[in-house]
Amino acid sequence: MSSRIEQLIDEIEEYIDGCKYQPLSNSKIIVNKEEIDELLRELRMKTPDEIKRYQKIISNKEAILNDARTKAEALINEATVHTNELINEHEIMQQAYAQANEVVSLATKQAQEILDNATIEANNVRQAAMQYTDDILANLENIITHSIATASGHYDAMIKSLNSCNDIVKGNRAELNPTADLDESDKLEDSPANTDLDVM
After folding, report:
1. Which of 28, 39, 51, 107 could form a disulfide with 22 if both were Cys (CB 3.0 to 4.6 A apart)?
2. What is the mean pLDDT of residues 57-64?
């Protein structure tokens, strides 16, 4: 199940893809400011909620460990009570000591296993939450990088096309008047600063 952040990113992508291009442009689009502002506003509002959700998941690590400690203490207390009962049986004192030590040892081992398993589980939950957050941020970074690259490519193609058209116009004029003197506008047009058409 995708998060609301991922859904908003998809909606923004679909909205941008559905926008019309400005007249005489294949790189600039017409955007409804209210609609895009609303999508971005919701994205800003949802991001802290998602991060809080992951922090809550990470904080569950302490709850898991505390639960494990409680179970471990209960096992040790139960073992201690059982040990005391055995020791009180004076006719089987030696056997009671041996059995008590075995019970305490087993309880301690089980308690350690519970703590180890709880630590592993808590670390896995924390790692999964961090990875999920990183994946969302990486996806957003890719969208921004792709948008920048696409806009830059369209801009470069437009400049190259205009410069090519300008060269054709100059060539046609030269063919029409091969021996004619250049007037002031021609001289200005052929000056080094105007050889290529640059648009900022």
Report:
1. 28
2. 75
